[in-house]
What does this fold into?
Amino acid sequence: MFILKIDPERCKACGLCMHFCPVGGLEYSEEFNSAGYHPARQTNPEKCTGCRQCIIMCPDVAIEMYKDTTGAKAGSRTGTDGE
Ligand code: SF4
Ligand code: SF4
It folds into this structure.
């Protein structure tokens, strides 16, 4: 599972990450940043393929990605939501 870390203060809500994500994995947050924009947020980490299109397309370098292995299928321990 891939977790996006999106800096809400860098995001200007251009929507490019959402447009280019092949799995519809991002949306606008309901919250505002200090500039008055609704920053992007990840919707379904389980669907994220880790393709990095959102990171590549973001003109404000607002997105970082981490691979979360705590919820791996082969794990023998019960995972949390990874938050
Ligand atoms: S890494 Fe790819 S699949 Fe995951 S949210 Fe970004 S564009 Fe979508
Ligand atoms: S591409 Fe970057 S600036 Fe544009 S909405 Fe996505 S995170 Fe925000």
Observations:
- The chain is about 10% helix and 20% strand.
- Confidence is low (pLDDT under 50) at residues 74-83.
- Residues 6, 11-17, 39-40, 57-58, 60, 62-63 surround iron/sulfur cluster (ligand 2) (CB under 6 Å).
- The CA atoms of residues 71 and 78 lie 8 Å apart.
